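Figure caption, in words: inputs first, then the predicted bound structure.
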Amino acid sequence: MTHDPYAHITAPAGTMLFEEGEPGDFAYLITSGRIEIFLGRGESRTVLAVRGPGEIFGEMAILDSDPRSASARALEDCVLVPVSEAQIRHRLSETDPVLRLCLGVVMARYRETVARLTGRAPAPSPARAPATSASPAARADFDAAIAAVVVERELRRALDRGEFELFFQPIVRLGPDTLAGFEALIRWRHPERGVVAPGVFIPVAEESGLVVEITAWVLSEVGRVLPEIMLAGLQNPRAAGEPMFLSVNISGHDLANASFPGMIGEMLRRTGIAPEHLKLEITESTLMRDPASAADALNLCRESGMGIAIDDFGTGYSSLSYLSTLPITTLKVDRAFVRAMLTEPRDRKIIQTILRLADEIGIPVVAEGIEESAEAEALARMGCAYGQGYHFGRPAPLAETLALIRAWNASQAPARSASAA
Ligand code: C2E
Ligand code: CA
Ligand code: CA
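Bound structure (calcium ion present):
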């Protein structure tokens, strides 16, 4: 059947929708009426299934790129919504590799079962061959599935064995260069691979949902170390001048987890830390994933007094709507703009514009990735309140962080010895 792919299809009773052996180009969602799926013709027809409203059919040939394994016709007058091969393929390519692999196996088994029951031999197809001898695409899928499963299992073991550690990077009030606080950055002390950066494992943790458990660990660790960090700050008036804060990176999965605000509240109560000393850092893409649940969780956290920072500002969707609807208290300008600021007038203008925007709505800006004193000075002149970057200090373990706080002297130019990230 040919049809307009942009419209619903009305198929009168008896219409052939597709025939066995044809290439599959569309699947169909049934909004009303019933269709039947069958093998053979005329008297020797074998009906495999009858499908009705709320169901989809014709998806198999698209999922595994094989010809139609059966025919379909309308049993009643039907209204169908076609879903094109491109629409399905796109969704499939965005899917988790393990799920994609499972889907391929289920499809192949289904076709084999049908072939056995009907006494037909299944046509050879890449989906049926073991992935190790299949097409490069199937092989890549298989490798990706293995990699995801292995890293995920290793991460779980790392949680059990206590292989994670928090590093801390100073955030500085520009001008006098006093210590305003720190950002907690996770590291994985892998038994064979040494220190693994979060860029390698946080994306896997996000995909598998394991990030929720990692955040729970980060928060319990923050509860353990934050009193010590704050005390060190209070003991050195030349460093901070006022109580410091700690920034923690959280993911969209955390915000979607209904117990998240309660979990943070419980950690703060247990440790006696005032919520004002904790800041949650979230990226723009995290906010876009599930804006409604993110808003609920962030409002609860903000109402209790915590700060909320937008991380990597300017690199994500930069939808300004969340600045008016969400309780944002800080913008962190991405390192990309800071890095190019001294050579590219355009990047400098972008920073200036972000500073003006933040000023208008009354929230401070942290410039990320400051590596040179010239950058720090230029940003201070532009009115940027806070800075963070290797110029002030690399992320460092707790002991070095405490030593840094004790030795910090805001009246001196930064002569911070930096530890390895
Ligand atoms: P981020 O939140 O944007 O963190 C800043 C990153 O920039 C850190 O990388 C930091 O080491 C690096 N950085 C800081 N100053 C400079 C500089 O002057 N120059 C350069 N080139 N880089 C600088 P890191 O620690 O590897 O973290 C990477 C990302 O991993 C973080 O980006 C954050 O998105 C994520 N992440 C880190 N810790 C956690 C965590 O505990 N939970 C979650 N969910 N994500 C985390
Ligand atoms: Ca961050
Ligand atoms: Ca950032």
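The CA atoms of residues 3 and 355 lie 54 Å apart.
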